[in-house]
Amino acid sequence: MTHVAVVGGGPAGLSAALFTAKNGIETTVFDTDGTWVHNAHLFNYPGIGSQDGSAYVETLRTQVDSFGVEREQGVEVTGVSPAGGGWPTTWAVRSTATSSTWT
Ligand SMILES: Cc1cc2nc3c(=O)[nH]c(=O)nc-3n(C[C@H](O)[C@H](O)[C@H](O)COP(=O)(O)OP(=O)(O)OC[C@H]3O[C@@H](n4cnc5c(N)ncnc54)[C@H](O)[C@@H]3O)c2cc1C
Predict the structure, then answer these.
(1) Which atom of ligand 1 lies closest to the CA of 12?
(2) Between 37 and 91, where is the model more confident?
(3) pLDDT digit string (tens) for 26-79?
């Protein structure tokens, strides 16, 4: 069972996932891939002179993948609720894409 569920796989969500996974906490990212970074271009971000936004997203994804983050791409989270033992030890994430519940 994953310990951290991150809703959103833009720069913020992937940054959060990077740090939790890096510290040995099992992490799952749910993402509908609507980040505006796909339409952006990075200029003079520290360490990056100029890079296409989608290329940057791919770099972030590769980085979190290397730490074992599970990414559920195309999965929209429609609700988070305590289940069984109660928040935060047990939880459920509901998705419209697959009508699934993650626990
Ligand atoms: C018009 C515009 C132009 C921009 N141009 C530039 C630029 O040229 N250069 C630049 O550096 N920055 C640019 N930005 C800024 C940049 O897009 C943001 O700073 C950045 O996207 C914020 O990252 P974030 O992770 O907080 O959110 P987002 O990038 O919005 O990521 C959120 C992610 O969560 C997903 N999501 C949302 N709800 C759910 C849900 N319920 N379940 C699952 N997934 C979900 C979305 O699909 C998305 O993939 C621009 C922004 C805008 C609006």
Answers:
(1) 25
(2) 37
(3) 999 999 999 999 999 999 989 999 999 999 999 999 999 999 999 999 988 888
> Does residue 20 lie in a domain region?
yes
Number of domains in the chain: 1
Q: What is the CATH number of the domain that holds 47?
A: 3.50.50.60
Is 70's C-beta closer than 6 angstroms to any atom of ligand 1?
Answer: no
Q: Which atom of ligand 1 is nearest to the CA of 13?
A: 25
- Cis previous bond, 82, omega within 30: no
- Asked, for residue 84, whether it belongs to a domain, the answer is no
> In the prediction, which pLDDT does 60 show?
97
- 38: Cβ below 6 Å to ligand 1? no
Convert 5-20 to b/e letters by CB count within 10 Å (16 or more is b).
Answer: bbebbbeebbebbbeb
- Other CB atoms within a 10 A radius of the CB of residue 71 amount to 19
Output the residue whose Cα is nearest ligand 1's atom 44: 31
